[in-house]
Structure formats: C-alpha cells, structure tokens
Design goal:
Length: 268
C-alpha cells in the first residue's frame, strides 16, 4: 500500500466548496438484496457532489469485501470505481479509509483511481478546524476480541497465506462470514455514552490534544453530539438504512440524508 500522510492541512475550501464524508456503504453485501440499486444511488450521489466538492473522504467499509490478489481484484463495483476515477481525474482529492470489511485494500485503488488510502487514523485541519478521522474499528479499548482479530487480519504473513487461496474459494468464505454479520441479522448495539468505546476513546484523545470534530463510521449510527467542552462526536450512519453522509462547508459540519426518492428504486 502506498504511504499516506497521518495528517493534512488544507485551505481547499473556497466559497461554495465543501468537504464530504461517507461511510459503511457495504457494496456487494451478500446479506442484502438491493445491492445494484444501492450502488446506483451511491454513484448518483457521487456525481452530484462533484459539482461543489473540494475533497471526498470515504471513511471505511465502502465495500462489504475486498481482497487484492497479485493479479485479481473482486468482481463488480464497476460504476463506483469509474465514478471515483472521474472525480480524482477532475482534480478532487479522494481519501479512502480501510474498514473492517475492506481492510485488504492495498495498491490497486491508489494506482488505478489515484486515491489516498489510509489504514490508520488521521488528523486534518480545514479552515482552522481540527478533525480526527477514522473508520473506528480497533479504537474501542473494550472490544478486545475484535482488536485481536484485527491483528490477525493485518498480519503480513497471514495475508500472504490467504493470497494463495484460490479467489473463488477465498471470496466465498468471506461472503459466508458476511452473512453472519450484524448487517444480515439486522442487529446493532445501542449507543450508551458510558459504554460506547469510540466515545470514550474520543474523550481520551481530548485529554492530550485539541479536536473540533471526531468523525467515525463503523457503528452504523447517525450521531452528532457534544464530547468534551467544545468538540463534536460524529458517526456517519450508513448507506443501508440511513443513506447518510457528512458535509463541512468551512464553517460548520452537518449530517444529511440523501434526498433522492428511494421508493422509486426499491429501497424503501
């Protein structure tokens, strides 16, 4: 994977320009029956934000599964990949955070699409506002089971071993695993401030540094709430039930839902 900066400072926001954030699209999720419709809606949204986007942050789990073999990448997502390539070709920077579902993005997307891939959290400063950006997996200090599993998934030797499994078998195993996920079960852990690992993590960061906005995905929750004295805790929701995203216009951050008539394409 190409090395990506752990921090950026940008004055790209000018009058009428915005920075967009989206997470947990889960393209190709085998547990869902409306993947084609959701992808078309997502691509439509990407096409619309091109008009005023200064920068785009794809905050993890954009794909429900992704593993790059040396000569093979997962089938599908043609519309999405083509539209992202159009966006980067037009000069709009796109940052992609690996999530727990698409953790095995390596050098294909940076090479082919010109995006910046991040497998770690990142600090960013836009118009004097300090952002802490991450998908969110692995940051919950109480989720020891997943944190151990993430160490296994990111082990280079084990990745090499898995890369030698035939893609048909490897992808089939991953899809079977996904069918047991909370997406398939329709389950979610309710937000409780005193037990929410990401929120507690944000509080711990504020003890050491100044942050205006913590922006996370992962939890599939649509949240914008205070943390600490002057900071905001943001969870971007998802593109499964919320069809939500975040936007920063240089002065304020807002969570929004896509306004398209989803009834016409079988999403409601």
């Amino acid at each position: 994977m190409a090395t990506s900066p752990r921090s950026i400072k940008s004055n790209l926001i000018t009058t009428g320009n915005k920075i967009y954030f989206i997470s947990d699209v889960h393209l190709g999720a085998p547990a869902l029956t409306n993947n084609a419709e959701r992808e078309r809606l997502f691509v439509r949204w990407l096409d619309e934000i091109r008009k005023d986007a200064a920068m785009l942050f794809l905050m993890g789990d954009i794909f429900d599964y992704w593993f790059e073999y040396k000569k093979v990448v997962p089938r599908g997502f043609t519309r999405t990949l083509g539209k992202i390539a159009e966006i980067t070709d037009s000069g709009i920077p796109v940052h992609f955070f690996t999530g727990n579902h698409d953790i095995w993005v390596f050098d294909y997307l940076p090479t082919e699409l010109g995006i910046h891939v991040h497998d770690h959290e990142m600090r960013a400063t836009f118009s004097g506002k300090h952002f802490f950006l991450a998908h969110g997996d692995g940051l919950d200090p109480f989720d020891k089971g997943y944190n151990l599993m993430k160490k296994i998934f990111t082990n280079r030797f084990l990745q090499w071993c898995f890369s030698h499994v035939h893609p048909n078998l490897g992808i089939a195993v991953a899809q079977r695993w996904s069918k047991k996920s909370r997406i398939a079960k329709g389950e979610g852990i309710p937000f409780k401030k005193d037990k929410e690992g990401l929120y507690i993590f944000a509080e711990s960061v504020l003890e050491k540094e100044e942050v205006d906005y913590f922006v996370f995905g992962h939890r599939h929750l649509l949240l914008d709430m205070p943390v600490g004295k002057n900071s905001r805790y943001i969870n971007l929701g998802d593109w499964i039930s919320h069809f939500s995203y975040g936007v920063f216009d240089g002065e304020k951050f807002e969570l929004k839902r896509y306004k398209e008539d989803k009834k016409n394409i079988g999403l409601l």
